[in-house]
């Protein structure tokens, strides 16, 4: 089976022959070694030197130089909003305290569908809306329990500063 041994980041993508694509949810985008099958039926072995987070729009480089495009699957998420920036920061703090993957935007936070957290957010005065969209959580190091959150250039990490 042909191996994919490295990741070509979205911002470094220039040309190259894209022969297939893999659609992965956020749990499957944190991997080192796993057999994969592209949407077009190409079987290959992802075999990276170390675990890495595959981002939407990245490509996996096969041993023969061909590329397999990575697409983030749409997932059921909860979109959390708050009446003020301060209220949103409080919500982010409470969510962060639970050590669950969260994607932090300028005026909203997205988490995996979880009715217990939805109730907590409403109790704190936030709004919760179910949405279907790709999930790009901060760090991405939750899957597989690895504590190595590699910060890759070009991605904006929002730090809550009070």
Automatic annotation (TrEMBL):
What are the entry keywords?
Answer: Chaperone, Cytoplasm, Nickel
- Here the segments flagged for biased composition (Basic residues) are 152-162
Q: What does this protein do?
A: Involved in urease metallocenter assembly. Binds nickel. Probably functions as a nickel donor during metallocenter assembly.
Q: Which organism is it from?
A: Methylobacterium longum
Chief place of localization: cytoplasm
Q: What is this protein called?
A: Urease accessory protein UreE
> Where are the residues of the annotated region Disordered?
142-162
Q: Where is the UreE urease accessory N-terminal domain?
A: 3-68
Q: Which family does it belong to?
A: Belongs to the UreE family.
Q: Which InterPro entries match?
A: UreE (IPR012406), UreE_C_dom (IPR007864), UreE_N (IPR004029), UreE_N_sf (IPR036118)
* Annotated localization: Cytoplasm
Is this entry keyworded RNA-binding? no
């Amino acid at each position: 089976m042909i191996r994919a041994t490295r990741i070509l980041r979205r911002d470094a993508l220039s040309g190259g022959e894209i022969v297939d694509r893999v659609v992965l949810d956020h749990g499957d985008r944190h991997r080192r070694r796993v057999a994969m099958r592209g949407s077009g039926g190409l079987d290959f072995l992802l075999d990276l030197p170390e675990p890495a987070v595959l981002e939407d729009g990245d490509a996996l480089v096969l041993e023969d130089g061909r590329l397999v495009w990575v697409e983030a699957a749409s997932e059921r998420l909860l979109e959390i909003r708050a009446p003020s920036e301060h209220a949103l920061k409080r919500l982010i703090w409470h969510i962060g305290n639970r050590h669950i993957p969260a994607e932090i935007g300028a005026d909203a936070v997205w988490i995996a569908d979880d009715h217990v957290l939805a109730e907590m957010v409403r109790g704190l005065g936030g709004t919760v809306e179910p949405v279907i969209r790709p999930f790009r959580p901060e760090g991405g190091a939750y899957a597989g329990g690895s504590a190595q959150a590699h910060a890759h250039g070009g991605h904006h990490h929002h730090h809550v500063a009070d």
